[in-house]
Amino acid sequence: MLLIKNGYVMDPESGSEGKADILISDDGIISKIIHEGDENSISDLSDIKVIDAENLYVTAGLIDGHVHFRDPGQTYKEDIITGSASAAKGGYTSVIMMGNTIPHMDNPDTLKYALEKGKTTGIHTYVCGNVTMGMDGKELTDMEELLKAGAVLFTDDGKPVMEEELFKTACQNAAKLNKVISLHEENPKYIKENGVNSGSAAENLGLTGSDRMAEITMVERDIKIAKETGCALTIQHISTKEAVDLIREARSEGAKIHAEATPHHFTLTDEAVKEHGTFAKMNPPLRKESDRMAIIKGLKDGTIDMIATDHAPHSAEEKAKDFKDAPSGIIGLETAFSLGLRELVEPGYLTLMELLQRMSTSTAKLYEIPGGAVKEGAVADLMIFDKDEKWVVPNTFASKATNSPFIGETMPGVIKYTIASGKIVYKS
Q1: What percent of the chain has a predicted confidence (pLDDT) above 70?
Q2: What is the pTM of this model?
Q3: Which phi and psi angles does 373 have, rounded to 5°?
Q4: Per the CB 3.0–4.6 Å rule, which of 340, 370, 399, 417 could disulfide with 384?
């Protein structure tokens, strides 16, 4: 058994908080929570491992609904083992892996491979199923078959599903299965070169870039289809203020629309491209300060209900290419929580509890996976951290990759322990 003593416990599911001890059973379940002032206590500590969390916070392990572990097919960038280690170091106990692998997650065998490998990592690794075969937008996958193989959501992340009638059928199929389709909303019609916002940021590189209408037009279309079919949708890595407004309106009308924000989109603008080059290249691109603030407003009022990293590792050689030729994406699992503290909590945009809810509970509830709660009978997926202690982002990570624009920056929030199913999977 494991006993966490003297910690300040925050339960993002109920919103309750206060000093307490947590007893974890050998089967990885929270068996007892003893709040400060309770008469009950644990006197016999024999055969119990004790973590003293005095002056530390104890909360639910973080849950990321959007990561790329490149496994199978591109394991020189990352694999399920190293990606999971990166997650654990960042306080994550559960992740959902995207399906733009090689082969794609459009067949049960690939899903089963990823799930089996994930069982060796110590954290909970979940898989998606693709919407279309080979992510080519032409032929729908057998969603029911992929669901039986273990998919917790459906997505062609990395590409939009452009054929409208095909997508409408996909939404009807997903609605029958009561599962979510998660969408990468970038219409190629409005993109000359991806990864950089059109306007001055692109022009400084001699490029045209990606116009904001690429996202806006797809979000408009897909909200309409969601309303028609009753399908639940997640708008991934939202980047424009107009898309935030569209989602807010759709949610107010009762549509089953959800949204993710990434730490890089609520932290940086397209000005970062000047300083960080390809380490600030991602799809959708960083946009303007007004877009960044609209995303923060959406996180505050619940329009955007999840924070996801879109952890996208690439090799140093790939990111060293010219901007136009380098791949898009950055790693994010080891810096996400600290960025949430620095950019959202410290300025007063979100409370700490709200940040924890958007980084755990909301994702667990939407995708119907365990976690996101600190209560008796729940799985013991926990993060123990010092909110105020500072650290400097190093140039090496638990991830295989180093493509982060935040290297060298000072961050608040040091993860002391990550505990998954009652087992310590990371200790600083």
Answers
A1: 99
A2: 0.97
A3: -145, 150
A4: 417
